[in-house]
Inverse folding.
């Protein structure tokens, strides 16, 4: 399949477009920001589907605004849907969750968001929070797994023919492959051995 002279899919490969003037797909300056920017783009392009994708983390509120802010004052994503409280997403695709950073967000940009937003840590790794929640200064960060989000993306966009939906379906498949890799290399037991190939030291002959 081709679009604007670029092949969208090849067997065994996933090709995500970097930019397209026709689709408005976000240009990513960072590998991690690409993924949160893509979710922001989804919220703009497909608001109804986005509400269904994010429904697990939405909280009803008297809020009439529909808007998306990417990289807002160091917050990865702030999304607003009419009838729901704003959603703040801190994305940790490749980095580990940072409680100090989450506290700093609460002391800074989160205070300016009204009504009080839902705070979501979106990550590949489990932060180890009790019940998937972290209480910080009277506010709660909720953990959202990329695995769960990818499943929801697949439910909404897999099998559709429009280009934007295919991008999001490919994103879901990419996340699935990342988790397959993680499952292969992750430690299953404290008794597992991690072995490295042993090469005996070589001794160079002294020059005389």
């Amino acid at each position: 399949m081709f679009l604007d002279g670029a092949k969208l899919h090849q067997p065994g490969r996933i090709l995500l477009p970097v930019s397209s003037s026709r689709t408005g797909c976000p240009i990513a300056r960072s590998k991690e920001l690409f993924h949160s920017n893509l979710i922001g783009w989804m919220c703009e392009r497909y608001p109804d589907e986005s509400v269904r994708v994010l429904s697990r983390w939405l909280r009803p509120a008297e809020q009439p605004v529909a808007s998306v802010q990417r990289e807002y004052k160091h917050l990865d994503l702030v999304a607003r849907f009419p009838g729901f409280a704003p959603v703040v997403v801190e994305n940790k695709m490749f980095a580990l969750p940072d409680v100090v950073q989450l506290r700093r967000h609460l002391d800074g940009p989160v205070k300016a968001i009204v009504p009080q937003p839902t705070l979501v840590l979106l990550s590949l790794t489990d932060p180890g929070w009790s019940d998937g929640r972290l209480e910080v200064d009277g506010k709660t960060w909720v953990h959202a797994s990329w695995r769960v989000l990818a499943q929801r993306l697949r439910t909404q966009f897999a099998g559709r023919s429009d280009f934007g939906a295919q991008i999001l379906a490919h994103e879901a498949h990419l996340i699935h492959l990342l988790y397959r890799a993680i499952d292969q290399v992750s430690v299953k037991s404290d008794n597992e051995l991690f072995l490295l190939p042993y090469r005996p030291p070589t001794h160079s002959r002294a020059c005389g």
